[in-house]
């Protein structure tokens, strides 16, 4: 990833997480309406059913963004924060990313 291409990178990443979020929401609503079971069960089933391959790719791209941010100068970091702040799906995904990373830390291999 290059600093000059960051805006384009973030737009693509935000779009990907937006699509993933809509897919998950649709699946959650379908499972919840169908089963009227527990909230945790509906969340678990929606997460298992939505496209895990795409979700994995998106989180790996978010990892790249985090590495890029850590290597950036203070001025570049300020600009990155401003750009990321314009993308609500990336901001939401950052919260999910913590759980995704924690699962990888618990895993004996690099894939879960």
- Major β-sheet, in short? none
The secondary-structure class comes to mainly alpha
Average per-residue pLDDT, rounded, comes to 77
Low-confidence stretches: none
* End-to-end C-alpha gap: 25 Å
User: In one word, what is the shape?
Assistant: globular
Which percent band covers the strand fraction? under 5%
Structural account:
It contains five helices and no strands. It has 112 residues and is mainly alpha-helical. It has a domain of 71 residues. Helix 1 packs across helix 5. The two termini are 25 Å apart. The mean pLDDT is 77.
Features:
single chain, 112 residues, mainly alpha, 5 helices, globular
SSE blueprint:
Layout: H1 6-35, H2 39-49, H3 52-71, H4 74-84, H5 88-106
Quick synopsis:
The protein is an all-alpha fold and 112 residues long.
